[in-house]
Write a structure and sequence with these properties.
The protein has 263 residues and is an all-alpha fold. It folds into two domains: 1-99 and 174-263, no CATH class; 101-171, no CATH class. 70% of the residues lie in helices and 0% in strands. The protein contains eleven helices and no strands. Helix 3 (30-51) runs parallel beside helix 8 (174-198) and helix 4 (62-83) packs antiparallel against helix 8. It is globular, with a radius of gyration of 20 Å.
Length: 263
């Protein structure tokens, strides 16, 4: 795929501040839209699990097995879309290549892998501590587990993804930033299948509350909005952010406010 020419504006003049800040306008990769579609599939499958009869084979719902297969196949298709795209998006004057600056010599690859493994281990331990702390919070505050899990642990658990995305944007690795966000959502959906395997009292879908279906539907809507933004690539936004980003924030705040009021 040919690299876009780096120009500040359509006529080579100063960049338009709003357009320059919107990732959906800067990115021009089919694989990014493919990741978003992949996430939608991974989010739709648990919703099917909630709606279908609550059967279990060896304590595992058939949808959980389907989710594991869909995750592997989805990763393969996204990889193929990146390496051999069947069509190319139109590049604009604001489009940037989503590559970091590789001109600087950094540490050896072995050192990088060691740092990566250490960071992953610290994140895993932090997630375990977060879970054992969140459970007592629900009993002491009276807040629902859905609200505590969706807001407190959800936001806190996503901090590593947020830091990774911001660092990637600062380095110019835009695809890495968006892939971190959307790819994390796809893996989070797969955790439902893993949790079903760990839950020994039947199908975990049978134990889920209607609020879980609400959160799945909300995440599907948010992902669909981002996908439409990546495809449409709106030039004008609201308050220096893209329209899709504004809608995502509005839906997110509105949905959890509703959960707090109802719960």
């Amino acid at each position: 795929m040919a690299k876009a020419t780096h120009r500040s504006g359509a006529d080579g003049g100063p960049p338009r501040a709003g357009a320059e800040r919107r990732l959906s306008r800067l990115l021009a990769g089919l694989h990014v839209a493919g990741i978003a579609a992949f996430v939608l599939v991974m989010l739709a499958l648990p919703q099917l699990g909630l709606a279908l009869p609550q059967v279990a084979v060896g304590g595992i719902h058939p949808v959980s097995i389907l989710m594991a297969a869909a995750y592997v196949q989805g990763l393969r298709m996204v990889s193929q879309t990146h390496n051999k795209p069947m069509w190319l998006p139109r590049r604009t004057a604001e489009t940037r290549t989503s590559e970091a600056d590789h001109g600087k010599r950094g540490p050896a690859v072995s050192v990088l892998w060691l740092r990566f493994a250490l960071s992953a281990a610290i994140t895993a331990v932090g997630g375990w501590l977060l879970a054992i702390t969140a459970v007592p919070i629900t009993s002491h505050t009276g807040l629902s587990e859905t609200l505590v899990g969706g807001v407190l642990t959800g936001l806190t658990g996503s901090l590593p993804e947020l830091v990774t995305a911001l660092a990637a944007v600062r380095m110019g690795a835009l695809t890495l930033a968006v892939g971190d966000i959307l790819g994390g959502n796809a893996f989070d959906a797969l955790i439902v299948a893993v949790s079903d395997w760990a839950y020994r009292d039947g199908s975990i879908f049978a134990a889920a509350s209607p609020d879980q279906g609400f959160l799945l539907a909300l995440t599907s809507v948010l992902t669909a909005i981002l996908l439409m933004g990546l495809l449409y690539r709106e030039k004008h936004g609201i308050a220096n952010i893209g329209l899709e980003s504004f809608l995502v924030l509005a839906f997110y705040v509105g949905a959890f406010t509703l959960l707090f009021v109802v719960g």
